[in-house]
Amino acid sequence: MTLAVSMRDVSIRHAAARNVTPSVREATLAIRQGEIFGLVGPSGCGKSTLLRVLAGLNGYWDGAIELLSQPLSPGVPLTGALRHAVQMVFQDPYASLHPRHTIGRALDEPLRLMGERDTASGLDEVMRLVGLDPRLLAHYPHQLSGGQRQRVAIARALLTRPRLLLLDEPTSALDKSVQAGILNLLNRLRAQFGMTLVLVSHDADVIAHLCDRAALMRAGRLGPALDREALVRALTNPERETGNE
Amino acid sequence: MTDSSYSLADGAPPPAWRAGRPRRLTPVLWLGVAILALLLAVALFAPWLAPSDPDGQQLTLRLLPPSSAHPFGTDGLGRDVLSRVLFGTRPTLLLISLVLLLTVPVGLTVGIAAGMAGGWIETILMRLTDMVLALPKLVLALAIIAVLGPGLLKGALALALTAWPVYARQARAETLVLRHSDYLAAARMQGIHGVRLCFGHVLPMCLPTTVVRATLDLGGMILAAAGLGFLGLGVPPPTAEWGSMVADGSAVIFDQWWVAMAPGGAILLASLAFNLLGDGLRDWLDPRHE
Predict the structure, then answer these.
(1) What is the domain-level CATH number for residue B163?
(2) Chain A residues with CB inside 8 Å of B14's CB?
(3) pLDDT for A67-113, tens place per residue?
(4) Residue B249 falls within a domain, yes or no?
(5) Residue A82 DSSP SS3
(6) Which of A95, A147, A180 has the CB atom closest to B181's CB atom?
(7) Burial class of residue A79 (count of CB atoms within 10 Å of its CB; 0-12, 13-18, 19+)
(8) Considering the domain boundaries, does residue B12 fall inside one?
(9) Of A113, A147, A178, the CB nearest to B190
(10) Would you call B192 and A109 a contact, using CB atoms and an 8 Å cutoff?
(11) ipTM of the complex
C-alpha cells in the first residue's frame, strides 16, 4: 500500500525559539493514500504545527518525513511537482485570501503560473466545482460571506490538482449551518479527484463525521492512529483520552 | 448533495454590492483634488493665463501696489507678481514630481526587500536606511547643491537623497506584519515567490500607506523646495520660483507686503492641497471604506 504521508520520529520547534522544548516531539505517523485522516486534540497541542510542516511552511524540524513517496529535508522548501501536489486550506478564510486581490485575480495567478494561457474557462470550472457563482470572480474577499470565502480558499487549493490536501480547522471559523456544506464539499471533492485529506480539528463531531482514521494529540505527543470504531470510542470519552484540562 | 443548491444560499453574489469600487469621494479629497487640478492647469496654461511676461522688467513700474492692471502688484524690478506666481507653479510641481519619482520606488523596494528577505540582507539595508535617516534633510540638501551647483534636477536629487528612508522604514514595518500572514503562505504554496510575491502581493498592501505618506510629505517637500529657492539654491534667478520670490519680497515686506505675500500664499495653497489630498486618500484607499 502506498502512503501519502510517512513520518518517523519527527520533532518540531518554532523558528524563533531554538533552545526551547520542541512543540511536537517524536511524532510517528503513516497516512494511506485516498483516506481522510484526522488529527484531534485540544488547542495548543501542536496539531496545526504538524500540519504546517507537512505543508512545507515550517522548516524547523528533524526526523524523517516522506510526502507522496518523496523524502523531505528540514529547511528546504517544497518545489516543482511536489509543491503543486501538496496544498492547504487555512482556518480563517478571511486571513488566507489577499484583501486587495479580487477572487478572479487570486485564482487566475496560479493557473497562469502553471502555464495556462486562457484561464477564463478554468476559473469558471473551479468556481462551479466548489459551488460558487462565477460572477463572484469580480468581487473582493470582504464582499463575501465566511462560507463563500472558505469555498474560494478550497478552489484555490484545487487549482494545482493536489494529491494531498491539508485542512487546518477548515470549518471552525464558520457558522454551524455552513460547516456541513463545506465538509460535504470536501468529501465530494476527495472522491472526485482521489485526494488524500488530512484534517486537523478540535471538534469531535467534525472528525467523527468525516474521517476514516484519526490520531489523538496531546501536549506535543501524537497518539497511535485509530480506526473508526476506536475513534468513536475515544471521542465519546474525551476526558480520559485527550485530557482536556 | 447539498452543494448543488449554491445559487440559493451560499454562492449567490450579494445583491447590495457590485463588482469594482463604486466609491464616492469625500469633501476633503474633493477639495484636495480640486486645488491640485487647479495648480496643474495653471502650470500647463501659464503662458495663456498670465497677464504679462513674468520676466519683463519695467523699472518705471517698481513695487506698485495691487491694482486692476497688476492684481498682485509688481516687484522690485517692475515685474508683474501675478504672472510670476502663475509661472512659478511650473518649477515647484516639476521638482516635487521628480522627488517623488526618485524616492518612492527606491524606498518601497528597499523596505519590501528587507522585510521579505530578513537575515543579513535586512540588517544591511536597514542600517543603511538608519544612516541616511540620521542626516538632517535641508542641511544635506544645501551641502549637495553647494557641490553640484543650483538647478532644478540637482535640487530634486538633493531632496530625494534624504527623503527615501521613511518609505523604506514604513514598507519594511508593514512587510514584517505580512510576512507570516496566511495569504502569503497560501501564495507560496501556489509556487508564487521572489519578485512576483514581493510586487504582486506585498506591494499592494504597502501602497496605500505609502501614497498617503507621500502626499502628506509633498506639503513639506514644497516648503523645502521653496526654502532652497529662498536661500538662492533653487532654480537660477530670472526664472520665477516661489521660494526666491518670497526672498525678494522679504526685503520690502513691511512697506510692499504684496511682493512676498502672493508667492507665500501660493506655497500655502499647494502645501494645503497635498495635505488635504493625503488625508482624503487615506480614507478612500481603504477597501472596506464604503
Answers:
(1) 1.10.3720.10
(2) 143-145
(3) 888 888 887 888 888 888 999 999 888 888 998 899 999 899 888 88
(4) yes
(5) helix
(6) A95
(7) exposed
(8) no
(9) A113
(10) yes
(11) 0.84
